[in-house]
Amino acid sequence: MAADLEVVNLFIIAGGTLAIPILAFVASFLLWPSALIKVYYWYWRRTLGLQVRYADCGGYRFCYACRGKPGMRPSILMLHGFSAHKDTWLSVVKYLPKHLHIVCVDMPGHEGTTRTNTEDYSIQGQVKRIHQFVETIHLNRKPFHVVGTSMGGNVAGVYAACYQKEICSMTLICPDGIRHPCETKFDNHLQDLEHSNYTLNIPLIPTTPEEMEDMFRLCSHVRFKIPQQILQGLVDVRQPHNTFYEKVFMEIVGEPSRYALQEHLHLITAPLQVIWGKKDQVVDVSGAAVIAEVLPGCRVDLLENCGHSVVMERPCRTAKLILEFIILQQDTRGGTKKSY
């Protein structure tokens, strides 16, 4: 009987011990979902071997995550989209070889990178800042591969046009900055915004869990089931930055940023890969044909049943396509097959 009581006591103690972290997790999920989201990203970066670092230049600080070291193969610089952050790329980095040198930077004013009221957040202004970042961490000691999605794709393309010698190859994922011949659902929203003199809510700047869910429906063809608490957490994380997001949005939809990529396409000399979701409701997939017409040598990969959030919807496929393209370009230049 005594032994049985000891066993019972042991289970009670063990159960109580386990209950503490479980209750803490549940409390965080219900009461502080935004904190839980930050912990989630921290844990994922740690699991993937990414380190968060800072680069200071003349009072301006860039925040970035990196893995690996520069080597024989080109480094990869990854530029996220509007109102996102460096952790956008975690799902893709997961499927890239660990020995590749990867750099995911917070775009100007986003997340951990310096934000100022006087900053130029136009596409051209962001290109200048990213070049400052590249020089600060000496990424351009040898040509590197740049990847950009959405707004980041616009910036990446203009960067490649302005700093041709620094880029060995590039991947643009559903880039904006193109006059696509077919209108999208977002184009209709944009027209409504313009007619209202931008007094209506901007679909890409949600302020409630319901608007956050609407944004996911707009940006993603794949329907993710996201708990209400997580939606609220995402809203809470973004809420303090919404005024800044509005400022950036007005910059990138205005002149001369709106079609900056298209206006610089003829200056791009690096091998180009374009990845696009066929069901993109933000930037129509017809933009891929516009790019291919100006740069007929580019590689175009169109993804079935995929929307604007290619990185989130098809991370494994995206990583595989990028890696295949880099290997192909290295083999073409070097004449020998390299192991990745």
UniProtKB/TrEMBL annotation:
Predominant location category: membrane
Localization terms from the record: Late endosome membrane; Lysosome membrane; Mitochondrion membrane
One GO molecular-function entry: monoacylglycerol lipase activity
Domain AB hydrolase-1: 74-315
Record's GO cellular component terms: AMPA glutamate receptor complex; late endosome membrane; lysosomal membrane; mitochondrial membrane
Domain of life: Eukaryota
InterPro entries, alphabetized: AB_hydrolase_1, AB_hydrolase_fold, AB_hydrolase_sf
Cited Gene3D superfamilies: alpha/beta hydrolase
A Pfam family annotated for this UniProt entry: Abhydrolase_1
Membrane topology, record value: Single-pass type II membrane protein
One GO process term, biological-process aspect: acylglycerol catabolic process
Keyword Hydrolase on entry: yes
Catalyzed chemical reaction(s): Hydrolyzes glycerol monoesters of long-chain fatty acids; 1-dodecanoylglycerol + H2O = dodecanoate + glycerol + H(+)
This protein's UniProt keywords: Endosome, Hydrolase, Lipid metabolism, Lysosome, Membrane, Mitochondrion, Signal-anchor, Transmembrane, Transmembrane helix
Segments traversing the membrane: 7-32
EC number(s) stated in the UniProt entry for this protein: 3.1.1.23
Family: Belongs to the AB hydrolase superfamily.
Biological function: Lipase that preferentially hydrolysis medium-chain saturated monoacylglycerols including 2-arachidonoylglycerol. Through 2-arachidonoylglycerol degradation may regulate endocannabinoid signaling pathways. Also has a lysophosphatidyl lipase activity with a preference for lysophosphatidylglycerol among other lysophospholipids. Also able to degrade bis(monoacylglycero)phosphate (BMP) and constitutes the major enzyme for BMP catabolism.
The protein, known as: acylglycerol lipase
Organism listed in the record: Champsocephalus esox
